[in-house]
Specification:
The complex is a heterodimer of chains A (312) and B (224).
Chain A: H1 2-5, H2 17-34, E1 55-56, H3 68-71, H4 86-90, E2 100-105, E3 111-114, H5 115-118, E4 125-132, E5 137-147, H6 148-155, E6 163-168, E7 188-192, H7 193-197, E8 202-207, E9 210-211, E10 221-223, E11 236-242, H8 249-253, E12 277-280, E13 287-288, H9 296-299
Parallel strand pairs in A: 1-4, 2-11, 5-12
Antiparallel strand pairs in A: 2-3, 4-5, 5-8, 6-7, 6-11, 8-9, 8-10, 12-13
Chain B: H1 6-33, H2 40-69, H3 75-100, H4 105-114, H5 116-133, H6 137-143, H7 145-152, H8 154-169, H9 175-205
Helix pairs in contact in B: 1-2, 1-3, 2-3, 2-8, 2-9, 3-5, 4-5, 5-8, 6-7, 8-9
The chains are: A alpha+beta (312), B mainly alpha (224).
């Protein structure tokens, strides 16, 4: 009965036709952009609207992206509830325009950007990244975004700046989960400056060729594909350069379970579950988790000589 | 007061049996229809665990409800409900052993030893085995009502372990495990209160007579 229903291919493993078609369309527009076709400005910014401009990136994986309905229907975004389906149901209340993002702290040129100005500063890139959640599942997501390094270089971090703190919106009026004190809101994440400047680190404003849906962290979120998914702070309002290690929301909630680095590491278990394997959403069998989520070539040198069991 | 005839009781049992299978039917249907969400295996595992706990609590509700309502016939459904709790525990455990660990014995052993939520969950399962095996008339006869009853009090500990298993598994939002903990506390608390009242009644009533063993006396006898 139950055993027979789960055959080699679960129904969700089959990519819906609509997604495939969208993907082809999207690849066309992406290659058009690469050829220098006039880029459409992003003005209305309604979730689901096409984001035409995207330069392809050599950092993209060739793996099959997780279906759109799963990427946008299975989310951890506790500001909208703790069930995976809560964000898709509740995040429509989030108002992403007007929206500003401040680059502040230890920088030569602190500045507050209107979101529409910020995402036009640099050509948006398409980055198809693996995403490994600390809970033991993973996805492949075609993000659209700009390298954080480009933005930080423009702001010119001071010599004293050692870390970058990412602060998410925490508006109880539009984010129902914020009224429950599960985490110490606002959601805070952090990176070491060299991690923030790593070419893989992305500020995403879209996915699947479209404006980022609210449940995925609209209008702007962090993406660090070699770290567990929770490092990707959503709905960012502040990016602050600081000289000491930021205390992240999850470190405050459970310091023994979540460390500052949170690099994907099959050799370091979460205290309550193993991190050796993961289930790719849509797949029946589990796969082995790779160190740094398979991005070791790009990031491992940043941690040379560090005891990653201690700095988990 | 409703007092079903033997025939009515049979009908009641059939209805209860069908209802107890409904959560499983829904999962099978959902798996075939692909309506269990992005991570159907996780959904199935969690749902089976939740229903194991539900049936455990439902089983524990039978005797207080019988006492409060006077519906003695409820007791006739208790064995089935308890066995369904075991049934869902076995299915829940199977999804873990198979779909989560793919029978990697080393990883499973490590999990049981290292992860407290799995340790308590597995303990609850092991403790349930003798209760399931003795849930028949022949075993009641063999053990005798009193010993059988003593053995089956292990279900109180199993309930506590089950709620702990859930509580420790949850990442951050413990609302639901808290609800289960409160319900379990009520079900165990009412028993403790009644037992204490019974003890005092016996002490006050006839202290010269040798006191009966503590606890309410529900004669457990095998059906003819």
């Amino acid at each position: 009965m139950l055993i027979r229903s789960s055959s080699d291919i679960v129904p969700s493993e089959i990519t819906p036709r609509g997604v495939f078609e969208r993907r082809r369309e999207f690849l066309k527009t992406a290659s058009g952009a690469a050829l220098g076709v006039a880029l459409q400005p992003l003005s209305a910014a309604i979730a689901g609207e096409k984001l035409a401009a995207a330069v392809k990136s050599p950092y993209s994986t060739l793996e099959t992206p997780t279906p759109y309905k799963d990427v946008t229907g299975y989310n951890n975004f506790y500001e909208f509830g703790t069930d995976k389906t809560d964000p898709a149901q509740n995040a429509h209340t989030l108002k992403t325009r007007p929206w500003t993002v401040s680059i502040e702290g230890m920088v030569k040129h602190p500045r507050t950007y209107a979101i529409d100005d910020l995402i036009k500063l640099f050509p948006l890139e398409e980055r198809i990244y693996r995403m490994r959640c600390v809970e033991g599942w993973s996805m492949v997501i075609p993000w659209l975004g700009l390298p954080l390094a480009s933005l930080l270089k423009q702001a010119e971090p001071l010599g004293s700046a050692k870390y970058v703190e990412f602060i998410s919106a925490a508006d109880p009026k539009t984010m129902p989960g914020v009224s429950r004190r599960l985490l110490d809101w606002p959601y805070v994440e952090g990176l070491r400056l060299d991690e923030a400047l790593n070419p893989l680190t992305l500020l995403a404003a879209g996915l699947y060729g479209e404006v980022l849906p609210n449940q995925n962290g609209a209008p702007l979120r962090l993406v660090t594909p070699w770290k567990y998914g929770f490092k990707g702070a959503k709905s960012l309002v502040k990016i602050r350069l600081v000289d000491s290690e930021p205390r992240t929301a999850w470190m405050k909630a459970a310091p023994s379970e979540y460390g500052f680095y949170s690099n994907v590491n099959p050799a370091v278990d979460h205290p309550r579950w193993s991190q050796a394997t993961e289930r790719r959403i849509g797949e029946f069998f589990k796969r082995k988790t790779l160190p740094f989520n398979g991005y070791g070539d790009q990031v491992a040198q940043m941690y040379a000589g560090m005891d990653l069991k201690k700095f988990f | 007061m409703f007092n079903p005839s033997a025939r009515q009781l049979s009908v009641l049992k059939v209805i209860t049996f069908a209802l107890c299978l409904a959560p499983l039917a829904r999962l099978v249907w959902g798996a075939l229809d692909d309506t269990l969400g992005a991570n159907p295996i996780e959904f199935i595992t969690r749902s089976l665990g939740t229903w194991a706990l539900n049936f455990l609590l439902i089983t524990l509700t039978v005797s207080p409800l019988r006492k409060l309502s006077g519906w003695n016939w409820l007791l006739r459904l208790r064995r089935m409900l308890g066995l369904f709790a075991f049934f869902y525990v076995v299915l829940h455990l199977t999804t873990y052993l198979w779909l989560d660990q793919f029978f990697d014995l080393q990883a499973i052993a490590k999990d049981i030893l290292k992860r407290p939520f799995i340790t308590v969950g597995m303990s609850a399962f092991v403790l349930l085995i003798p209760l399931a095996l003795t849930s028949n008339n022949a075993m009641i006869k063999r053990l005798g009502g009193k010993r059988w009853q003593k053995l089956h009090r292990a279900v109180y500990a199993i309930g506590i372990l089950g709620v702990l298993h859930y509580w420790w598994m949850v990442k951050l939002d413990t609302t639901l495990p808290q609800v289960y903990a409160v319900l379990l506390a009520l079900l165990l608390g009412i028993r403790a209160i009644w037992r204490e009242q019974e003890r005092r009644r016996q002490l006050a009533g006839n202290s010269s007579l040798p006191s009966k063993p503590h606890g309410k006396n529900i004669p457990i006898t095998a059906k003819q």
